[in-house]
């Protein structure tokens, strides 16, 4: 999943100006008596276009149902693509964002973040007023390069927010998920298990640490919040034994669209420091290629941008360069796991499920409907192995890694024999029932290791992931919660409310479960 978000505190509502502002913006439903709101607006501007990030907060005492946010530009800013975390539309200069299906009601004290890309020429002036359901939210400020959260949604989630990088050590890793002392274990595949150097099974149970996939390309830093020894110790205090680290192709490869201070060698050093600090702390690091290059504007497009500013249905040509470099960097670190692409969704772009699986494995001409050179999973496996790395490789299936139906039939060739399946499951996915898990995931898990790279739910509770974890424990399947970031869990699955590890209502389910099983 990917939710990005950016925040600056703006003002509270003044209902007296609601009628005037509604006429200006055309913002949907009638004003609700007593409704209060505040809006944070920031941008990531690259000269001919920008990403607009809005964070709507409900400081009132009652929920805002079926919210609709409206604002107006004064220039020629034009919406590109469909946006994320809300339904974006534009009429003239007026922009409207309505509630996504999974977050129609904004709870009292809660907030939700949404984003979209725009093109423009000339001056990119910030909006001066906002409405929610006809009520004015005044005091809007202009964009700022200083961030705190960020959002981009797919059929499966992920999220983002603030700035920092560096790292240092602490201890422990695990057989069957328990934590001991020392570095994370060297891993390889044996049958349907991940095992350590001594042949003991290792079940990975931990968290995702989002931030390095979006902060750099948005020009804010290396990570959303701290990635130092104290933050690693906080993760370990939950009895986790693995951390998945989403990263960005543009930043790693050092493309020109990224600020030099956050690109190339600077970015690679920041990622390497964090990954090795996790390893030294006994936490298995999983490097996940999250945002990639490729201009895709078809079904379920996350953005109309060639650059790595959102999820793409499949990796492009630059992903092979990325994985060759990552593999060379970590080829002598067998505790580091490679997740080749966060959430493939070739099934949304290519006609027919069989063709989509062929695209997934083979890329290139097997991907009609994707108008950039696609690197299939076989190409990326080859890139890793040619670089001399025998590390364990995770391959997510289709439908944002929720569909593993033809994974085994399309499994790439791997001379190292170190391939495992990556599966993502949220309560709103198609395969979100135990009957589906038993019929599609369990047979695969009987033949190859399965790692649930992301588990989560969109209701700020944990009853769904409780079911997932219990099922996975019985099947000896690994799992990691999305995400160790301090966003409001009402805007997407967020495990913590501060980087000391204070759990949200959603995160409490994972924290308590890890304490019980590890």
UniProtKB/TrEMBL annotation:
At the top level, the lineage of the source is Bacteria
- Its top-level enzyme class, in one word, is hydrolase
Q: Which reaction does it catalyse?
A: Endohydrolysis of (1->4)-beta-D-glucosidic linkages in cellulose, lichenin and cereal beta-D-glucans
Per the record, the coiled-coil ranges are none
- CBM2 domain segment(s): 30-140
Write out the GO biological process terms: cellulose catabolic process
Question: From the UniProt record, which GO molecular function terms apply?
Answer: cellulase activity; polysaccharide binding
Could you list this entry's UniProt keywords, alphabetically sorted: Carbohydrate metabolism, Cellulose degradation, Glycosidase, Hydrolase, Polysaccharide degradation, Signal
Q: Does the keyword Protein biosynthesis apply?
A: no
Entry EC number(s): 3.2.1.4
Q: Which residues form the signal peptide?
A: 1-32
Q: Quick one: where's region Disordered?
A: 159-185
What does the sequence similarity comment in the record state about its family?
Answer: Belongs to the glycosyl hydrolase 5 (cellulase A) family.
Query: Under what name is this protein listed?
Result: Endoglucanase
**Organism of provenance:** Kitasatospora phosalacinea
